[in-house]
Amino acid sequence: MPEEISNVGSVSQQRYEQIVSELREVVEQQSQGQFLIGDRALEIEPMREKGGNHAPAPGEELFTVRDSLFRLAEDIGLAYRTVESARWTASRWPKERRQKGVSFTVHKIFAAIAGEDERFEVITSPPPGKSRWTPDEANRRTGRQVVKPVSPQEKITAIHSLARDEEVAAVVTSDFLRRPAVAAQVKPEDKVRVVEEFTRDENVAVTVTTGLLRRPDVAFKAMSDDTARHQVNHAQVERGRQAREHFEDTSPIAPAVRQIDRTVEFLDLVTACHSFVAAAGRAVPGLRDRHLGEDECTIVHENVAKVRATLDWIEQAVDTGKVDVDGELARLLQGE
User: Fold this and answer.
1) 3-state SS assignment for residue 7
2) Is this model's pTM higher than 0.85 or not?
3) pLDDT per position as a tens digit, 258-296
């Protein structure tokens, strides 16, 4: 059977290899041309140390140097940045250290390596399994962003780079979070942080919280937290107080209702005391011949202290009409 011939794009593998060979010669010529531009720019304006032994990188040149390089760039029809970059790259690669077959682009990337020994060594040692350095491999070696990301971290870096604009980041995040498989892989602590950020707006927070508390399992677990339960109870009391104040301020029948309220409050108080006595009467006999553990005794004593403080509070309210709670009693009732 004839051997299957694979194509590269619209050309055969054989033709593709001919094109590569031809263009490598072109790239070599371009590299020599770029280095020549850099060498001549260096001849006009040699590198000048800036801040000790620091040779200025592109963008750090003195104004007088920029004037000369800008004139040269205009006279030969190139952009100033092209001439500036070629000069700097040439300064980092003495002629005897420039590698034939390695593009000027790769030389420019490795020019950022500060140490000469490392710089001159690395360009002669392509990555394992590679016959030559490519720009992406050179960027990978120097820790820069690659054009074609391969590893998960490189892909993450590319996404972050594209999403630097806040509006783009918002759209991308929204799209990602609509994918259940993606959302499922987000760590719980990160999910909490995201929800906290999204609910800084009070209207959003109210909507989210209301929706979550409609889920029985969520509401049960949330109310297991003492602080959350206290805040909910406080909110309910505060809502009732505001509703009562609004009623007393606006309703024409408020004076007539106040006497009824006192009767209702009296009945509520008597009922609460009766319920406590009845519940204790059922529970205490069950302790006969039973020895509680140290932790259990501690919990019971803490609750008895709360009950005793509450009874004192009730007596004070009944005898004096004062229902204010002092700081110590408030902390005790809140479990602090």
Assistant:
1) strand
2) no
3) 666 666 677 677 777 878 888 888 888 888 888 888 888
User: Domain check: are 21 and 70 in the same one?
Assistant: yes
- Report d(CA 166, CA 172) in Å as an integer: 10
pLDDT for residue 51 is more than 60:
no
Same domain, 194 and 236: no
Residue 136 lies in a domain: yes
| Residues 113 and 155 reside in one and the same domain | no
Q: How many domains does the chain have?
A: 5
State the residue range of the domain holding 318: 292-336
CB atoms within 10 A of CB 127: 13
**How many helices and strands in the chain, by DSSP H and E?**
16, 2
CA distance 322 to 313: 9
pLDDT at 144 over 80: yes
pLDDT number for residue 1: 38
Instruction: Identify the pLDDT of residue 52.
Output: 43
Residue 1 belongs to a domain: no
Choose among 115, 137, 142: nearest CA to 127.
Answer: 137
- In SS3 terms, 226-275 reads as HHHHHHHHHHHHHHHHHHHHHHHHHCCCHHHHHHHHHHHHHHHHHHHHHH
